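step=predict obj=Extracellular solute-binding protein n=547
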Amino acid sequence: MESNKSKRKYRSYSAAGLSVLMLTGIVLSACSETGSTTKNSASPSATDAPKAVYPLNTKETLTSWESLNNNATTFYQNLAETPFGKQLAKATGVEVKYIHPNDQQTKEQFNLMIVADKLPDVIEYDWTGRSAGSYPGGPEKAINDKVILELNDLIDKYAPNLKKKLAEDKELDKMIKTDSGKYYVFPMIRNPSGLVFRGPIIRKDWLDELQLPMPETIDEWETTLKAFRDKKGAKAPFSVTYVNGNFEIRDAFIGAYHTSNTFYLDDAGKVKYGPVDPQYKDFLALFRKWYAEGLFDKDFALTDGKALDTKILGGQTGATVGLLSGGLGKWLDAMKTKDPKFNLVGSPYPTLKKGEKPFTGQLDFKYNPGPSKAVSATTKNPELAVRWLDYAYSTQGSLLFNFGVEGESFTMKDGKPVYTDQIVKNEKYSLQQMVSQYTKPNGPYEADERRNWNTYPQQDAAVKLWMNTDAAKHTIPAFLTPTAEESKELGKIVNDVSNYKEEMFSKFIMGKEPLENYDKYVEQIKKLGIDRAVEIYQKSLDRYNKR
């Protein structure tokens, strides 16, 4: 680790950089390959790396800093105690001490840890610099700060499984390296069917009872919400969580106006900032109207996850924007015995015109940065760390990470892994709770296409609806890497813009600020430097496309 001079660099930068908000609501996933550190160098072939043999013959141990899945905490306090952790140690021959940050204080505990003289050997965190919950300045700066290692040579020599995947998938390869060609992480790789997992959700039983069609347009949504208010007594017909300035509506409803709640790509592929578009004012006018009429939650600014649970399950709310498992599946689970008639389903992203394809929606990428692991610059045994991490990308490692322990959590049927009854038909615990003990729901490995954690047909149907958008065309890649100077400048601009935008967002919707002042609001955001931020993102995008 670098001296206190480096630590001071991190502290001084973090005040601005931690607030860099490149994108809100895109989920990601990818892999990387090794090669030289020059951007245009050829990637190594998959046949170059030596074969890996497990378990490794070692008495050395490793330390790993990573979050423990919330479902797993029902049963264990440390990953090493779980059936998954024990089997991983047995299979790799490596004993690991896991350090788990508090789930509510991950960023704060990461910031405290990162300035220490000795870091854990591997660290599971978002290194992209794309949001407040990632490393400020991104991976290039993390490497320059001597916090994490450049992995090119290490992957080339000691990670044949990951190296093979990167050689076979150039898109993934591009995602997990910097503009200068440096690999920095062992990635979580999402499967194609796992890229969409959030969208509009509505009470289907209420629609049926009121003989209403599934709403598709903004006008149909307004009719539906009025019926929920007047005929079902819903106090907050439509509600979403709003935590730390993160409005979980994301781009639902906003996208109907062909804009976004953050940075996006227009039809020509150019970077734009949605909240200053003229049409964004139309979205604000809609939600201002719905707020005044009691269609949109009067307490939206105070609604966190627990509050939304109460509103959904208590009949106060009939529609929201939520997650596939952590929302739709969770709420169906909670009500399946209490109220058999209770039925939630996914609904299409709203549009202005009937039959129009939604402008955007939630869409993840292959590479999911948050659950990916970097090797710290202070590790004494980088070779062992890399060999241990590479196991997850092997055939046997993939089975463990995705399905767990053979004979306990899964069996092979017709050559395919299938979860056992104790996992899928457990009378006491949900599927998600059970798999959290035997697998690693999120982490540095490739999610298996055969893995399906949906427990209701409503979830499968929701994904099909939510996939039907033009999000792929209008979503900015989440792995842009501004230069160190650009990042520093960007951090201050986006921090200032985001704070002001969120303040005015609430005021506009609540009626505390007249919409006639929208042009003044846009003018102030421009004074704060949003045009320069767009310019930086555009340059970063151009470099990314040339990788």
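step=describe
The chain has two domains: 4-23+58-189+366-400, 197-362+451-547.
step=end
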